[in-house]
């Protein structure tokens, strides 16, 4: 008796599963990215500092 109930529930679930529709949205998907590009600035400053030290060794004695 229980197996018949489980079977009926499974058949009902499978028949309802066919009613799902998937379609593309009308409007394009918009993704806002707020990203800080901080690493590039630090690398540039580090390179500039290295160039300054190499070009002016008298300013930075070791």
Structure described in brief:
By secondary structure, the chain is mainly alpha-helical.
**Unreliable sequence segments:** none
Structural class per helix/strand content? Answer: mainly alpha
Number of strands: 0
- Output the radius of gyration: 33 Å
Outline type? rod-shaped
* Mean of pLDDT: 77
* Biggest β-sheet description: none
Strand content: under 5%
Helical residue percent band: 40-55%
| Continuous helix count | 2
What does this entry look like structurally?
- The chain is an all-alpha fold and 62 residues long.
- 53% of the residues lie in helices and 0% in strands.
- The protein has a domain of 26 residues.
- It is rod-shaped.
- The mean pLDDT is 77.
- This is YnbE family lipoprotein.
- Keywords: Lipoprotein.
Please specify the SSE layout and strand pairing:
Elements: H1 2-17, H2 39-55
Features:
mainly alpha
